[in-house]
UniProtKB/TrEMBL annotation:
The lineage of its organism: Bacteria, Pseudomonadati, Bacteroidota, Flavobacteriia, Flavobacteriales. The keyword Transcription regulation does not apply. This is Peptidase family M23. The keyword Signal applies. GO terms for molecular function: metalloendopeptidase activity. Residues 52-117, 133-167 form the M23ase beta-sheet core domain. CDD domains: M23_peptidase. Transmembrane segments: none annotated. PANTHER family: M23 FAMILY METALLOPEPTIDASE (PTHR21666:SF285), PEPTIDASE-RELATED (PTHR21666). InterPro entries: Cell_wall_metabolism_enzyme (IPR050570), Dup_hybrid_motif (IPR011055), M23ase_b-sheet_dom (IPR016047). Keywords: Signal. Residues 1-21 form the signal peptide.
Amino acid sequence: MKIFCKLLFIAYFLNYFAASAQNNYPQNYFRNPLNIPMQLAANFGAVRSNHFHMGLDLRTNSQENLSVVAAADGYVSRIKVERYGFGNAVYITHPNGYTTVYAHLNKYFDQLDGYVKERQYKDEKWEQDITFSPGQFPVTKGQVIALSGNTGGSAGPHLHFEVRDTKTEECINPLLFGFNIPDRVVPTISGLYWYDRRFSTYEPGANGIPVKKAGNAYTTDIIQVTSPEISFAVKAVDKANQGFNLGIYQADLLMDGKLIYSFSIDKVSYDDTRYLNGCIDYTKFSRDKMSIQHLSELPGMKLKNYNSSGKTGIIHLEDDSVHNIEIVLKDVNGNTSKLVTKVRYAVNSQQVTPSDQLVKPDEAKTVSTENAAINLSKNAVYDAVNFKIGEKPASHPAAISNTVVLQTAYIPVHDYFTLKIKPNRKLSTEEKNKLVMLFDYGSDTDAVKAKWNGDRAEAEFNRLGTAVLLLDESLPSVSANWKEGALVNNSSLRLKGTAKVGDIASFRAELDGKWLRFARLKDDFVYVFDEKCPKGSGSHVLKITTINTAGNTNTQTFTFQR
């Protein structure tokens, strides 16, 4: 019995040492930032549009204004107020070298909220990004720092919570810090795909393989491939105990018992988060809304701390022998799923031929038509692209150029490129100042005020699609949620903004000649009544000045009684 106990202790020690070597993050230092049990709506590393999810989305039971508390002692080092992104956010720096972030908040604690409001009125600007010294707003573990909400780029009430390395600002997977979130559910695998890697993952694209459950594992029929160089990708989710589709934490690919590729999501910086587009089948994600993660490295994918194998994941099949394939998926708690199958090189199919407009990773390229040119940097693509650019007649009534077609919206680019377009007629100086470039991605659009370079207008974008030059002489406007001159007994004033092309780039409100703080919630502008306009204060004149993307300015006046 003593020997058994000693062996058990040694095994426990070895397991603990191994876990500690892999995870040097302090355990149980941070507490739950909510006063309700932690339940995940999204985890760290989950696939998002053009980025990894960089923290935990904590459920607030579909409610707003729950108490948000400091996860540990520290001080408020920064706050942000923005239309999209985090909305209202608090950053707390802790003495152990980490910073926690709390986002989509409705309101800061009273002392901090008052400071922010005072700064907004001083700057006459609602959006803010303020940093603080350690002595200004110290907080203790469990202290209420804010109320939860649904501000910024939030699609529903929740708390977004991050843990960052204070020095490097890298976001670290919060689940590595020992939060008590019960999880006994293994990842679910629903698809397997292989790619011909002789040219690019984009051409000819994914080859789907039906997956079936076999006991506690998954399998497929033997995979007959038509290329001697292939890679795999997997469609899978981790539901944990919550039922939400969470991202995969770790994946290993083995062939004939040897590790071919491995990735894990431990930490990512915001500077690198866009490399997600080189970790997934971007075409499937953007076109089919399917999250499929590569089990290989694309040549232009340079995300640090992701590929833990040191190998590319590209499989070279030199004969027609059958090879054993094993894919192992794990979550942070070690819950594991396996897919076991076999692969065989069957027939050598025709290879994709590079075109004269080939764009490759690590090589800058300019691709042109008669009236347009796109300048791509050496970091633009993750894999080789036979780039296609063309022109067609524009259908927009305000268009003053052909529509330029750039490849397809289903191929990603990593950084901003410059697009130059020549208008189809000569423009006056006044017209040039009202020119925007409208970019259509298929699912949404973006408009940028164009700059002039010789006889061409230019703008920068970081997605592909179609673009056209528009002459925008329209005025932006807002509409009120009250009748002109009416007595307003609501708790707030709400204005809805409209811009025919692009967006409302600037908004200014003045109440009886003085700047008034309106918050911007998506396309609405909201003022919550306070001491600036108390009940019984009589009649008021509200002057609103808006400027759209093209630079056109509109001033409107509204009256109401309070």
